[in-house]
Amino acid sequence: MSAPHVIPMSDDAEAITLDDVRPTILPDAYVASQEAQSATSFHMPRYDELPQVELYREQVLTYIEGELEPLAFCVEGPWLTPSMVNNYVKAGLLDPPAKRLYNREQIARLLVICIFKQVLSIDAVARLFRIQMVTYRVPRAYDYVAVELEGALRTAFSTDPVPSDDTASLITRESLLVRNAVTAFATKANLMGYLKFLGYDQDTRR
Description:
There is one protein chain. The protein is built from nine helices and two strands; from the N terminus they run αααβααβαααα. By secondary structure, it is mainly alpha-helical. It has a two-stranded antiparallel sheet with strand order 1-2. α6 runs parallel beside α8 (138-156) and α8 crosses α9. The radius of gyration is 20 Å and the shape is elongated.
């Protein structure tokens, strides 16, 4: 797809016409795109579906990149790197590996961090985790994030968005914070994907 015409913003720039601002690719076309279909059909593995055997760090990186690959179009760069993992351990977001091996709980936390860090600072993610640790055990909290994320993506990438019902058995401050975080991620994913679909990720400099 060719890059869109960029209208310089200066006093002596040519006047903007209706053709300049008329959409050339309607949202319906984007919703039918491979990117949007990947988002709406995305499955976040549930806690019981995560690896039951402990993994070395490189195996964890490969696993997480593979699971989040359907959403790769809406992020820049890798989801996770060795230095990122080290930083999360230093920040207290993740327990240090035992004998260089990461268990299922650590993998669950890394998956959630990869999603939340797209819209929140690491400090904010850490605060969310501290709240979660007081109220819910990791398996339950993780599965709630997974279900809500899938619902938020289906809503964000729909031409007739209807917010999905909150799946929490009891709506609490914690569940609302999580729901807001995944909604923010899904909205950003939709915007980033649409801009790339229109060609705005290409170099448009003259």
